[in-house]
């Protein structure tokens, strides 16, 4: 595999990962807008537990 092919593969991976992140954020925003406090609390606990804020 050439260097270019390796780089392209990495880009594809990063792009798909980014797309996945965007989709996740969108879903979370919808859940927050709906105003479900239990979902909100659970998500925040998980987020801060795994890798904190920012």
Q: What are the segments in which pLDDT stays under 50 over at least 5 consecutive residues?
A: none
**What series of H and E elements makes up the topology?**
HH
How does the major sheet shape up? none
Strand content: under 5%
Q: Please state the structural category.
A: mainly alpha
Helix fraction?
A: over 70%
Structural shape: rod-shaped
Total strands: 0
- Average of per-residue pLDDT values: 78
Task: Give the number of helices.
Answer: 2
Overall number of structural domains: 1
How far the N terminus sits from the C terminus, by CA atoms, comes to 37 Å
- Rg, rounded, reads 16 Å
How would you summarize the topology of this molecule?
Elements: H1 3-34, H2 37-51
């Amino acid at each position: 595999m050439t260097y270019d092919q390796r780089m392209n593969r990495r880009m594809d991976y990063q792009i798909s990962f980014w797309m996945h992140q965007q989709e996740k954020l969108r879903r979370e925003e919808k859940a927050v807008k709906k105003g479900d406090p239990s979902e909100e609390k659970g998500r925040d606990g998980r987020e801060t537990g795994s890798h904190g804020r920012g």
